[in-house]
Amino acid sequence: MPGWKVVYDQWKPEQQPLREALCTLGNGYVATRGAFEEASADESINYPGTYLAGGYNRLVTQIAGQEIENEDLVNWPNWLPLKYRHPGEKWFHTSLVELLSFRQELDMHQGVLERIIRYRDEAGRESDLHTRRLVSMANKHVVALAWELTPLNWSGPIEISAALDGRTTNSGVARYRALNGKHLTPLAQGQHNNETIYLQVETVQSGMRMAQAARTHIFTAPDTGQPERVLNQEDGFVEQLISVNCTSGQTLRVEKVVQIHTSRDHAITETLQEARKNIDRQGSFSHLLGKHAMAWERLWNRCDLQLECNDKAQSVLRLHIFHLLQTVSANTVGLDVGVPARGLHGEAYRGHIFWDELFIFPFLNLRLPELTRELLFYRYRRMREARYAASQAGYKGSMFPWQSGSNGREESQVIHLNPQSGRWLPDNTYLQRHISAAIAYNVWQYYQANQDMAFMTYMGGEMMFDIAQFWSTISKFNPERQRYEIHNVVGPDEYHTDYPGSDEIGLNNNAYTNVMAVWVIQTALKLIEILDDSRVNELFQKLDITKADVLRWEDIASKMYIPFLENTSIIAQFEGYGQLQEFPWQEYQVKYGETMRLDRILESEGDNVNKYKASKQADVLMLFYLFSSEKLVQIFQTLDYDFKPENIPENIDYYQQRTSHGSTLSKIVHSWVLARSDRKRAWHNFEVALVSDVEDVQGGTTPEGIHLGAMAGTVDLVQRGFTGLEIRDDVLWLNPALPDEINCLNFQIRYRSHWISLHLTHQKIRITFDRGWSKEVQIGVLGKVYTFQTGEQREFDISQ
Ligand code: BGC
Q1: Residue span of the structural domain in which 789 resides
Q2: Ligand 1 atom closest to Cα of 355?
Q3: Whose Cα sits closest to atom 7 in ligand 1?
Q4: pTM summary value
Q5: Are residues 225 and 134 in the same domain?
Q6: Which of the following is catalytic: 38, 411, 494, 575?
Q7: How many whole angstroms separate alpha carbon 543 and alpha carbon 518?
Q8: Which residue positions does the secretion signal occupy (predicted)?
Q9: 18-68 pLDDT, tens per residue?
């Protein structure tokens, strides 16, 4: 099936870390990198990793003269190991044989990773090895392997090792290796029955347990009897050594099915007992595959996006949807987890949760809103910590952490290693207070798409009000300007964390932050009107919000300061930006290309990126990404600034020339904001964003985990950016600007309880109201509003 597979037809060891990340299989509960079954972790090629949604642990390390604590998404026991050897010889390994053919396929339609290789070993024996793997979407506790060995020119005995390896550490990211990475302590291992072994481990600090039970079935000819098995174990490791006879030309089939339980699971007694009990109830690989493939089919029915473009764009977009659904799925519901920026695919950023949700939720909102709701609950449950953080910093309300993990404490690292210079440096990016605005924005977007009043009346409203309260208390009135200001923050552009030569950290009046603060406060004021008075009173009482507070909100909503570059309509990224030096872009772009980590490069050269008009990623431009020009102009008008839609292109142009795209999120925003004014450049940016991970454009970051924000962001660019899909004033608006490269686009969305199919070409839009369970819905096409009811289909000519 074209467009559904990622295929590698050559073995390239140097690419293996990237392939492992891209071939990760997951189900929203657990995920395992696409490492080979016979591989164990080494310095640079193989890194098996199994990660659990919400599976965190903290460790302390002495580094650069400081004691620092880091919370990591733990690399749990490796359930993959399955390998063989000829008696007295080394275990099979790709590096020890001559590969005659190689093919690895990721089948996104079924969620299966497959490898088919033919090889010759040192003794001249030729064999075929065919492996398939799944991480069940149908039963989140089950993962399975089918392994088939066909001797082509030899016969004789072999020994198979089927193991569970809990001696894993977190060592997948080279620049973290100086930090303590031993999170697991072994609890138990052994044999459950003739075919099944088990292992149980616990995290050393968070006390989370995981048990795995692995059943290995060998398919032998009926008259050959059961193969002989020997148990081998040490603390944290258990294996069965199975002796089998192979016959030339006959395929030996082995299936390894593993049951996984953790102490965070619902409806269990104890992890090991559950794993041992439930493994006995599992069927064969093909039975599991059937159920698993059906679960994927159901997901694809809702989530696929078909475009007539080049094959690459289609399959890469599917890969992005695939990895998003592997990170969060129906299996995530009830787990109390957030969505890690790097998926469950590697150890970069330690599995922390950032503002990347902003780029991820729009896809879920319009298809699986139950998931957005669930992920917003993760934030809601951490309000206590956010309220404490605000109070510690001298504010009120909820101040969410820039990096979040288990309990909502700030998890940003205190110091970080610049791999380019080898120096450990202070990391002040935690001052990105705009994260709290992103959470409020996500609450509001979810509500807009689903009109979930129950949510909004309770958790949603509580978060909106408390975040508004935070923004109001971090804003300080400047009597000279007669305006409110926000000081000592960092904007989305993480390069700028202080003023050159200043002892203070943070910047003043980051335009993005200030506008977002105003938007949050204005929206909270609107919400007071929407919710019934008694509920508003209840919430205000609970949150200690007074009438005086609301009066202050109203004042800030019309008097926030927004910096502009002198005598221009260019919004200044922050106050003082205009005084920074211009950066010699050409010189560096020739050397490092279009996307680069200037902060690291300059620090290693003894310079400091803070000195320059050089951004890591979209900062001011985020405003044009999140708001329509109408909305933004309205915000500026309320603030009494003369900012017009005509000023937007000059702002885009200005920052476009001063951005190094050191984050994969940057190109998404740049493509989006150009979608209407410059389709060629928009498409170029889209293409770069599209290959961020498949081609690892940041040079070595994808092997450490995919960039979920960029993945979901590219899909959202197609679904909302290029179609002009926007929810405004209770109308779902469509105003397409399809790039020339896309001829035709088909997808489904769920909007306010209706499933709607959309078919777009350059000439027409066809809207079909498939299924739904609520009243009619208003859809606006090119400025005119139409009422749609279930079963209706209409076509609009958009060729003029
Ligand atoms: C970006 C942030 C992003 C984080 C996680 C950083 O490189 O600058 O905006 O949230 O990566 O994806």
Answers
A1: 745-797
A2: 10
A3: 663
A4: 0.97
A5: yes
A6: 494
A7: 20
A8: none
A9: 999 999 999 999 999 999 999 999 989 999 999 999 999 999 999 888 899
